[in-house]
Amino acid sequence: MRRTASQENPSEDVAADTETNVSDEARLDAADQSPDDGSDNVTVDDLAPDLNHVQYIGRASERQIDAGTWPDGCDQDMSAVWGFFNDFKIDKSKFTEDQLEYLLGDLDGSFVLVE
Prior knowledge:
By secondary structure, the protein is α+β, with helices and mostly antiparallel strands. The chain has helices at residues 10-32, 44-47, 97-106; strands spanning 53-56, 62-65, 80-83, 89-91, 111-114. 32% of the residues lie in helices and 17% in strands.
């Protein structure tokens, strides 16, 4: 709980914290309810233009995705290997948008975008 200089009435602090939390939640709800204007075509480049590599941050000493093992909807022709030899990074331009969405969102949290 946040403390103020005046501790004479602790219930005021609770009320202030509650108001802050409610307003934060209200802002988040409002953002989630923005009108659908058909602009769902946001790409990874739009969200992170300065981050140019997909880095593997998992526990294995090497991570490989073979051609033909990507999920449905992804280009199946690419193989990718992350390891010590490439500092666990692959240029994001090597991946299709669907592959990037899979790696960065749908998988297991072991991939991130870095410079």
